[in-house]
């Protein structure tokens, strides 16, 4: 008789929710995974990240970047947030994987202006290029969240666990 495999996914609790929220609020950069439109293969790059007023993850990127073109061709994306600490095994430090659909924010309009002000608050060096015509914001609408809190601490969360509806 074979035993059913034990799921490594724990029941989401308040500690997991707090860890995920903390990682998201503190993040200033993330690894972004997209589908390359030329090869249809995965592509990963590092981006700056921030949060809109409602807590939705956003990024500010150049049209010249391969990931901007990829998001326009296929809005499905994945973000990895969380950095290893200065000491210890990198796999023991928490990290958050967000599955999302990216939405480009039009450059002209109140929403772009509001996001620009938020962006500059958390990314002051962006003042050098915030007005460049080839930069735009993308908002990431979350569909699933995976928290790895370290060895044996895996959780699946939803947008509501971060205080969001999507």
Could you characterize the architecture of this molecule?
- The chain has 166 residues and is of the alpha+beta class.
- It has a single domain (10-84, 91-160), classed as Roll (Pnp Oxidase, Chain A).
- Helix content is 20%, strand content 36%.
- It has 3 helices and 9 strands, in the order E-H-E-E-E-E-H-E-E-H-E-E.
- It has helices at 14-26, 66-73, 110-122, and strands spanning 9-10, 29-35, 42-48, 50-51, 57-62, 76-81, 95-105, 135-148, 154-157.
- Strands 1, 2, 3, 4, 5, 6, 7, 8 and 9 form a 9-stranded mixed β-sheet that branches.
- A hairpin with a 5-residue loop joins strand 8 (135-148) and strand 9 (154-157).
- The longest helix has 13 residues, at 14-26.
- The model has no long low-confidence stretch (mean pLDDT 92).
């Amino acid at each position: 008789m074979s035993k059913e495999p034990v799921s490594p996914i724990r029941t989401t609790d308040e500690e997991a929710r707090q860890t995920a929220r903390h990682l998201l609020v503190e993040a200033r950069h993330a690894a972004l995974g997209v589908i390359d439109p030329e090869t249809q293969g995965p592509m990963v790059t590092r981006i700056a990240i921030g949060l809109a007023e409602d807590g939705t993850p956003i990024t500010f990127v150049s049209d010249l970047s391969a990931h901007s073109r990829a998001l326009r061709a296929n809005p499905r994306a994945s973000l990895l947030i969380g950095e290893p600490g200065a000491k210890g095994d990198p796999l023991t430090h928490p990290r958050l994987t967000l599955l999302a659909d990216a939405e480009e924010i039009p450059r002209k309009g109140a929403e772009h202006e509001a996001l620009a002000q938020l962006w500059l608050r958390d990314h002051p060096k962006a003042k050098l290029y915030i007005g460049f015509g080839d930069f735009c914001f993308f908002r990431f609408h979350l569909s699933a969240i995976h928290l790895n809190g370290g060895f044996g601490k895996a959780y699946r969360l939803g947008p509501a666990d971060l205080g969001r509806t999507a």
